[in-house]
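When time allows, look over one protein, given below as sequence and tokens. The question is which stretches look regular and which look disordered:
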Amino acid sequence: MNYGQTFCDLRENKGYTLKEVSEGIVSVSFLSKFERGESEISIQHIHALLDRLRVTFEEFLYFHNNNQPSEFEAFFNQAHELYLKRDLKSLQKLYEEQMALWEKYKVKPYRCQAVLLKIYENIIRDKMIDDERDGLKELIDYLFNVEVWTLYELRLYSKTILVLDEKMIETLSKTAYKKSKQGLPKVRETVNNILLNTIVYLIGPVNQPKKLVNEQSIQYFFETVEGNCLETDLLLKTNIMQLKGMYEVKKGNRDDGLEMVNRAIEVFKDLQAPHLAKDAERYLSLMLKCR
């Protein structure tokens, strides 16, 4: 289905006539041709027409794709599913497909996607990741060289964050926040998840409770994610409370930390997020066992 047909469906479903939508933007005949797929349209005009319908461009694309994820989101979903299934054969096949696309078009994201698949394979095989041989350095260089991070770069980084060293994670997480445009809810949500995962990493693994932590960096990321939090982001606020409690436990302030974590767990339950509550309970239990 072409974009014009999608627009036509939205217009008719909203009960607008061609004249009502086109008034002051384009001619009726031009809009009719666009809807029939007989004419292209400028970005400026399509945004104006969609605004007339009170439909965002993101919603328009969502309807156009029949509520299916974009090509790159479908890739990330497929790769993650194969990783969870430990399906090395399918991961290898997908890797070869991405490398073939890279060799044919020399478009850097194809190479980065192949690197991600190689990382998944090495984790499953319990092999060390070689920055040069496995292409991790190329992926990092790509992220640093992109001036504006879209959802693609954010998803790519979030999938590789735990194989990077602490200093690189600090730097790239700050870059992700500074270079992304967070007007879109999905972008802001992904950035906030990156910030939370960075805090988890900096607090350190539960089996190293006495690991020295970089308090200045942890404080920076707490302040950043709190500043990026909307009043209605109840789950995000609760996640922050939980991690602050874990941080206090890590530092040896057991009673204060336990109070915060247990309060967060109860809020998760009240918000009907049982999986988050169980994850918080499991994380706390592991931390306490190692002290």
About this structure: The chain has a mean pLDDT of 93. The first helix runs from residue 3 to 14. The chain is about 75% helix and 0% strand. The radius of gyration is 23 Å.
